Amino acid sequence: MTPLLIALQFLTRLPVRLPGMPEPREIGRSLLWYPLVGLLIGGLLLAAAWLLDGQPMLLSAALLLALWVGLSGGLHLDGLADAADAWVGGYGDRERTLTIMKDPRSGPIAVVVLVVVLLLKFAALTAVLQAGQWLPLVLAPWLARGMMPLLFLITPYVRPGGLGQALAEHLPRRELRLWLAAQGVAMLVLGWSAWVALAAALVVFGWLRGRFLRRLGGTTGDTAGALVELVEVGVLVGVALALA
Predict the structure, then answer these.
(1) Among residues 50, 8, 37, which one has the least CA distance to residue 143?
(2) Coil, strand, or helix at residue 134?
(3) How far is CA 80 from CA 106, 162, 187, 212, 220, in A?
(4) Which own/partner pairs from 193-196 qualify as long-range (CB within 8 Å, at least 24 positions apart)?
């Protein structure tokens, strides 16, 4: 149960208390629970959409987006901001990029990227709500948090001592492969919107992973957070465009 609590505490702002200091093996095994934490976030968004049904569409989309950000505490947005600043300010240099990524301050590039990402989420949320399609509210956080363990599984972790080092060193590789495959099968039985969402998630994942490898030779905690945000955007926008 401890790995689940670790995943909940790390990925959400839900009131979770660990029984003690977790072992590195337990931290690694927490990756198995990341997709289910995404599914939980999606379920809470779905419940909120049901409660807001019949309210003004733009207001509902804004409230859902605020809840979405609040549930994660802006964790992945912070990673996206750091990665955006480092990617532009690094000028293609690996060490400079890694150094800038460690700086907790946000520059203008980070602010612009965050505004654009949140605007795209808001617009896509409005589109799927108008179409009466609530399943993407579950698919986006579910798939995005499923892509993070996949990233750690097949991509080197390049920041020694970083937040993700224990995840990368102690992840249960065989179990994780089977679990992620089961998640993919689940998507196939959920209908066309899940197929579009899965395709969008894999395209974004493949493109970002390629960029991470070319610039850094692998991933960091910040780039993993950026991956979550951009996969969520890709899923929402992809489904919204398919509905148009």
Answers:
(1) 37
(2) coil
(3) 10, 16, 26, 13, 11
(4) 193/133, 193/135, 193/136, 193/139, 193/239, 193/242, 194/135, 194/139, 196/238, 196/239, 196/242
- Amino acid present at 189: V
Instruction: Select from 158, 130, 142 the least CA-distant residue to 243.
Output: 130
Q: Which of 25, 115, 121, 29 is nearest to 67 (CA)?
A: 121
Q: Which helix (H) or strand (E) holds 234?
A: helix 221-243
**Which among 114, 35, 40 is positioned nearest to 77, based on CA atoms?**
114
The token duo for 196 is 């579009």
Cα torsion 241, 227, 26, 75 to 10°: value is -100
Q: Which amino acid is at 5?
A: L
How much is the CA Rg of the chain, to the nearest whole Å?
17
- Distance separating alpha carbons of residues 182 and 124, to the nearest angstrom: 27
Q: Work out whether the CA dihedral 170, 175, 178, 184 comes out positive or negative.
A: negative
Would you say residue 14 has pLDDT above 70? Answer: yes
Where are the domains positioned within the chain? 33-243
> Which tens digit of pLDDT belongs to each residue from 161-201?
766 788 888 889 999 999 999 988 998 899 999 999 999 99
